[in-house]
Amino acid sequence: MKMKRLGRTGLMMTENSFGALPVQRVSTGDGAALLRYAYDQGVNFFDTARFYTDSEEKIGLGLSDVRRDVYIATKSMARDRRGALEQLDVSLRCMKTDYVDLMQLHNAPALPDECDPESAYAALLEAKKIGKCRFIGITTHRRDVALAAAESGLYDTVQFPLNYLSTDEDLALIEACAKNDVGLIAMKGMSGGLISSPRAAYAFFTQYDNVIPIWGVQNKSELDDFLRFAREGVAMNEELREIIKKDRAELAGNFCRGCGYCMPTCPAHIAISDAARMILMLRRAPWQEYTTPAFIAKMKNVNNCTNCGACHAHCPYGLNTPVLLRENYADFLAFCGEKGISIE
Hints:
alpha/beta; eight-stranded parallel β-barrel; 42% helix
């Protein structure tokens, strides 16, 4: 695989790197085996988080004996120095290592005060000083925060949702990171499953030498697609541009990206990341998995929405989430009716 330089870190990452969030959904053995398979196929960068339940344990099981041959990044959701350092220690134990190559602040709503000795940023500096991480970064779903981080000189890397559905405003982050020699890690390369063409998704990133996508995969076949694209030298062409044009037209405007930024704020405990884009998933993915009793229960919970506005206030894309929830629920009911699926 082609290698890409992760900004000022100087680390050379495989163009197809591994986002470990989905491996929490598979068994311990299957997750560890998938991680090891990725390594055996040449993948050298694995991104996880303390928040991703047991994905760190699976990394420890699958990769600890080849630790010096891979780069590992993790993240902390803590917003203070003590909490971030404690979470990092747990991460290190789980992954059976004494350091990570990249420690990141997870889903930051704003840049922490770099002058505050008890801030999460202070934890990054301390972890680096004592050798528990080599480089420091930040992840966010907010464009303004990502741009501020890239221009601040404080972070070695920025992780942000980027894919071929991204707006021109979002894509401006690529140039900002290149200008400041900040490593740019692209999450949500498949827009949480809404993108229809993995080939086009891969080709999109071949246009940018300074962007490293971390594909969230949970089985070998998904990973094999991206590995095959690399072997074939897939690049952007007119056919793929037409696919991208079609997807952008279908998904233009108000659609939920599934970032989850609104989730902790819902007092009605609605699974917003699923419910607010359900009809898109039904049309663009195998619909059977979204009409199970578990998903029906999630969708029925939309009826408990109180229109408190918390989700709307926390949406980095400015979506009117309560309206999206109601629209998707109505479409969901109609779809189930067409398929003869009882929701009772």
